[in-house]
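WARN no homologs supplied; continuing
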Amino acid sequence: MLTHISLHVPVMLTQRPSSVLPYLLEQGHKVLNVDLVPFPDPKADIYTLKADLTQSGQAFNALTSHFNMAGYEEKSLPQAPDVVIHFAAYPRNMIVPDNETFQA
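OK structure emitted
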C-alpha cells in the first residue's frame, strides 16, 4: 500500500510498480527510476538511470546521481535522495548483510 508522503522531496525508486511513479510525480515529487530497463510508459516524464543494484558501486553512484539530464544545468552538485523506495528483494535492511540485500 502506498502512503502519502507529505513533503515534496527527491525520491529514488527501484524495481517499481508502474502506477507508483506517475502518482509520486503528480504529488510534486522529483523522481528517479533506477532499474535495468526503462520505465514502461514512454509518455511519462520519468528518467531511468540504468543500474545493476547488485553491484555496490552502481548502487552507491545511483544514490549520488542527477535525477535527469536537466540536473547538469543546476548550479549545485547532486545530493542523495531524501527517500528511497525499494520494491525488490528483501523488505528491509538488517535481515542479511548489505551486500546480500543488494544482490537479491
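Residues 12 and 84 are 5 Å apart (CA to CA).
OK
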